[in-house]
């Protein structure tokens, strides 16, 4: 990942070997790192450090990760939280998203996966840190709300823009319809999941993706963007 100087990440986990592993890897990537081993320390450090990203374990002594997440989201206007959980349970993921978590990674995880998810959160929530985001044949300019594909500016509605940006920024990650609805349309959207299919079809037409090689459908799972 390029141009990460000045980007702050707070790591919260009560397992020393995980903290050391993440501190070493993310520091080598160029991030500014702080760490905490319990919830109250995380709250206090975040108030002083003002991190862009918090990598937050669910199972913590005293105050658990859910409560830390809720308090951080309540007290800080723009912060991205990636939950670490040892439980690959739908209920845990739903609970985390409902209290404000932006993403989750299930333990055990690879450093490369976590780094990719950190990059996706930064591009999605802090686009001005990078100016224009270049990903494969796409250039995303969030200040102009403009996406260029193969050097051509796409004519997109506001919702199409947000959907395509979300798909491209999370390239390589399978995104379910429900996740897309929550992130693009919002948690209070009361419509049908089929609206996602309608907008995906429109984007494929505008991208001339007739064979669905760019925006892939994974039956029963969702969609994934594969960039050349």
Account of the protein in words:
With 228 residues, the chain is an alpha/beta fold. The chain has two domains: 8-127, Response regulator (Rossmann fold); 131-225, Arc Repressor Mutant, subunit A (Orthogonal Bundle), CATH 1.10.10.10. Helix content is 41%, strand content 20%. It contains eight helices and eleven strands. The protein has helices at 16-29, 39-49, 65-75, 90-98, 111-125, 158-169, 177-185, 194-206, and strands at residues 8-12, 32-36, 53-57, 80-85, 103-106, 133-135, 138-141, 146-149, 152-153, 215-218, 222-225. The protein has a five-stranded parallel β-sheet, with helices on both faces. Helix 1 links the parallel strand 1 and strand 2 (32-36). The chain is globular. 29% of the residues are buried. The mean pLDDT is 88. One of its GO terms (biological process) is regulation of DNA-templated transcription. Residues 130-227 form the OmpR/PhoB-type domain. The modification 4-aspartylphosphate is found at residue 57.
Outline of the structure:
The protein has 228 residues and is an alpha/beta fold. 41% of the residues lie in helices and 20% in strands. The longest helix has 15 residues, at 111-125.
Protein topology:
Blueprint (H helix, E strand, L loop, with lengths): L7 E5 L3 H14 L2 E5 L2 H11 L3 E5 L7 H11 L4 E6 L4 H9 L4 E4 L4 H15 L7 E3 L2 E4 L4 E4 L2 E2 L4 H12 L7 H9 L8 H13 L8 E4 L3 E4 L3
Helix pairs in contact: 2-3, 6-7, 6-8
InterPro entries: CheY-like_superfamily (IPR011006), OmpR/PhoB-type_DNA-bd (IPR001867), Sig_transdc_resp-reg_C-effctor (IPR016032), Sig_transdc_resp-reg_receiver (IPR001789), WalR-like (IPR039420), WH-like_DNA-bd_sf (IPR036388)
GO molecular function: phosphorelay response regulator activity; transcription cis-regulatory region binding
Keywords: DNA-binding, Phosphoprotein, Transcription, Transcription regulation, Two-component regulatory system
